[in-house]
Amino acid sequence: MKKLIYSLLAIVLCLTCFAAPVLADASTDLTAKGAKVFSANCAACHQGGNNVVAANKNLKSAALKEYGMDSTDAIITQVTNGKGAMPSFKGRLKEEDIKAVAAYVLDQSAKDWKK
Questions:
Q1: pLDDT tens for residues 8-61?
Q2: What's CA 20's distance to the chain center, in Å?
Q3: Taking the C-alpha atoms of 47, 51, 55 and 60 in order, what is their torsion angle to the nearest 10 degrees?
Q4: Distance between CA 85 and CA 44 in Å, rounded?
Q5: What does the CA dihedral 106, 110, 112, 113 come to, rounded to 10 degrees?
Q6: 27 belongs to a structural domain
Q7: How many structural domains does the chain have?
Q8: What is the CATH number of the domain that holds 84?
């Protein structure tokens, strides 16, 4: 019985050790994809996290928090449906591309849009 418990514990430890790098790579891949999608579709209005239409509604961390846009779901909703001067990208971008853009925006806002 002890051998079984130790074997299961060893398996769990191995899986835990190898799962973190895989998850980190997936997050990095999503952010890298988001950077490409952002560059092709969003940068014209939001270069460097700014907003050429409404300067106060930029993509910087403080503004995202102020306007309740500091979550993946909120950004996905905004990009998908649009609002005000922001056009809808539903049908123009795939759902996975919109998720990638949201990940990229949150990542960049956390870095204050500095590489």
A1: 444 544 444 444 444 445 567 999 999 999 999 999 999 999 999 999 999 999
A2: 18
A3: -70
A4: 13
A5: -40
A6: no
A7: 1
A8: 1.10.760.10
- Two tokens, residue 81: 């449906």
Does 9 map to a domain? no
pTM of the entire predicted model: 0.76
86 annotated as a binding-site residue: yes
Give CA–CA dist 9/57, Å, rounded: 50
Domain that holds residue 47: 32-110
Q: Which residues pair with 90 in a beta bridge?
A: 93
Q: Are the C-beta atoms of 49 and 59 separated by less than 8 Å?
A: yes
Q: Between vectors from CA 29 to CA 20 and to CA 15, what angle results, nearest 5°?
A: 20
Please check if 42 is assigned to a binding site.
yes
Confirm whether residue 69 is marked as ligand binding. no
* Distance (Å) of CA 80 to CA 1, 77, 83: 54, 5, 9
Instruction: Say which residue the tokens 């418990």 belong to.
Output: 5
Residue 12 lies in a domain: no
